[in-house]
Specification:
With 228 residues, the chain is α/β, with parallel strands linked by helices. It has helices spanning 29-37, 53-62, 84-94, 112-124, 176-182, 206-227, and strands spanning 3-9, 45-50, 68-72, 99-102, 130-137, 142-143, 146-147, 164-175, 190-194. The protein has one domain (3-134, 165-227): Alpha-Beta Complex (Spore Coat Polysaccharide Biosynthesis Protein SpsA, Chain A).
């Protein structure tokens, strides 16, 4: 069974320009993700799926003769006209693998051991058709002027709110055939793995980028400097 991790990199992010390749605490989000995934023994191949020539050049220069390769993405699948379902199905169709791992750069704190755990757990539990990391949501949630997860007249303490989880897309593991059939990395019978608050961090806005960079610098750059 071939296992492939796919790192999606889109050129020209609207909210955080060039976020995957811009400087990030002495590295970049793309470089950080590749180095992390290279420490996962269960992964046979790492594919950077991108429409960015800079990303392709980086991969071909820095990771020649390794299990990392760049895959050029058609512009439609990097455009706002392409739906999420179209994008996921396309990734499955162009990735030659048995087990597909979705591993975006924008989750810089997911540990290699977490990825390994997720892959092993997916393989060991075939009754589920995918495995996805999630975050616990303990918030008083409203939609269209109505509370959706509690009764405002009998408000509970926040720790007693329902156990709602949200996909954080740190790691998603799915069989390629299931991905294509569902046009989604999330199947019809998912298995969820709860991550720590740090590993759940996803960079989507300039503020997210700034906060993540400060945390990364504190956890890894300064610590490494002290050890040296």
């Amino acid at each position: 069974m071939k296992t492939t991790a796919v790192i999606p990199v889109r050129k020209g992010s609207q909210r955080v320009p060039d976020k995957n390749l811009r400087p990030f605490a002495g590295t970049t989000l793309l470089e950080n993700k590749i180095k992390s995934l290279l420490k996962v023994p269960e992964i046979d191949e790492i594919v950077v799926n991108t429409n960015s020539e800079a990303a392709i050049e980086f991969v071909e220069l820095e990771y020649a003769d390794t299990k990392v390769r760049a895959q050029r993405r058609e512009e439609y699948y990097a455009s706002s006209q392409c739906s999420g379902s179209e994008f996921f199905k396309h990734l499955g169709e162009v990735t030659d693998t048995d087990i597909f791992i979705y591993a975006p750069c924008t989750s810089p704190f997911v540990k290699p051991e977490t990825v390994s755990k997720c892959i092993r757990q997916f393989v060991e539990h075939p009754e589920y058709d995918c495995l996805a990391t999630v975050s616990s949501i303990k918030e008083f949630m409203w939609l269209n002027g109505k509370a959706i997860n509690y009764d405002p007249q009998h408000a509970p303490n926040s720790q007693n709110l329902p156990d709602i989880v949200a996909l954080n897309f740190g790691v998603t593991v799915v069989k390629r055939e299931t991905l294509i059939a569902n046009s989604n990395i999330i199947g019809k019978n998912p298995q969820f793995v709860l991550t720590s608050d740090i590993e759940a961090i996803d960079i989507d806005t300039p503020l997210d980028f700034y906060i993540a960079e400060q945390i990364y610098h504190k956890l890894y750059v300064e610590k490494k400097g002290l050890l040296n």
